[in-house]
Amino acid sequence: MQANLQIDPTDARILTALSADSRRSYADVAAEVGLSTAAVHERVKKMLERGVIERFALRVDPAKVGQHFTAFVAIRNDGGVHCRDIAPRLREMPEVLELHSVAGEHDFLAKIRTTHARALEDVLYQIKAIPGVARTTSTVVLNTEFEDRPIAYGMQDAA
């Protein structure tokens, strides 16, 4: 596992600005952080090269594309198959948006988004059919107050 890369306060401010809206122009970000447009461009390029910035992404409103139903599903391994063999199977399922290996009673926590409850049921059957999955425990989301919150990079240490 790679050690955490250190970023300076200026890079942190650039990341904070871009995490809120990655479509912002470098000129706009430069004005906010007090650098030239070229300097911001060069810093972003270096952060991309170092893997600090993995990618620029599009955020779609799930409800506007028919994905009205969200659930968190805890998945427990039966011990017969290693967890590393289960994760790739879950990655193949487009409804599984996130997968986290966790400590505790379960081995994974998955964020799943579907069109409705019946579609979630179908996904759960698919998950339970994966060799090594012993059981699932689902928590249905009633309302999402916020998600995908931009991080104020480096600002946590300032307090």
Automatic annotation (TrEMBL):
InterPro entries listed in its UniProt record: ArsR-like_HTH, AsnC-type_HTH_dom, Dimeric_a/b-barrel, Tscrpt_reg_AsnC-like, Tscrpt_reg_AsnC/Lrp_C, Tscrpt_reg_HTH_AsnC-type_CS, WH-like_DNA-bd_sf, WH_DNA-bd_sf
CDD domains linked to this entry: HTH_ARSR (cd00090)
Domain HTH asnC-type: 7-68
Superkingdom to which the source organism belongs: Bacteria
Sorted UniProt keywords: DNA-binding, Transcription, Transcription regulation
Coiled coil: none
Protein name according to UniProt: Lrp/AsnC family transcriptional regulator
Organism: Hydrogenophaga defluvii
